[in-house]
Amino acid sequence: MEKYVRGKVLGKGSFGSAILVTNKLDNKNYVIKEIDISRMPKAERDASEQEAKLLMALNHPNIVRCIECFTHLNKLCIVMDWCSEGA
């Protein structure tokens, strides 16, 4: 998270939130989806992390690109392109 500056919260759900961030290195905006994994069983956490990594392999014009994923403070963070005009 240290390479991103947090902006406004774009949305919240039962499992987490979507936050607009700016990358300090390239000054581009992205969205980080933060998913609380602190109460998930280990098998479910592992499956969620694996699914996030699979998202990074997808390359299709109708799918928002996943830039990276990592865990930070018991949250699975999925960094995605920001669609400023909507999806």
Question: How would you characterize this protein structure?
Answer:
- Its EC number is 2.7.11.1.
- This protein is α+β, with helices and mostly antiparallel strands.
- The protein has one domain (4-81): Phosphorylase Kinase, domain 1 (2-Layer Sandwich), CATH 3.30.200.20.
- It contains 1 helix and 5 strands; from the N terminus they run E-E-E-H-E-E.
- A 5-stranded antiparallel sheet has the order 1-2-3-5-4, with helices on one face.
- The longest helix has 16 residues, at 42-57.
- The mean pLDDT is 92.
3D shape: globular
The ordered string of helix (H) and strand (E) elements is: EEEHEE
Q: Report the span from N to C terminus.
A: 25 Å
The tally of domains stands at 1
Alpha-carbon Rg, integer: 13 Å
- State the helical fraction: 10-25%
Main beta sheet: strand number and arrangement? 5 strands, antiparallel
Q: Would you tell me the overall average pLDDT? A: 92
Strand content: 35-45%
Strand order, main sheet: write it out: 1-2-3-5-4
Structural class: alpha+beta
Number of helices: 1
CATH architecture: 2-Layer Sandwich
**Which topology does CATH recognise?**
Phosphorylase Kinase, domain 1
Q: Tally of extended strands?
A: 5
Question: What is the class in the CATH system?
Answer: Alpha Beta
Keywords: ATP-binding, Kinase, Nucleotide-binding, Serine/threonine-protein kinase, Transferase
GO molecular function: ATP binding; protein serine/threonine kinase activity
Catalytic activity: L-seryl-[protein] + ATP = O-phospho-L-seryl-[protein] + ADP + H(+); L-threonyl-[protein] + ATP = O-phospho-L-threonyl-[protein] + ADP + H(+)
Protein name: non-specific serine/threonine protein kinase
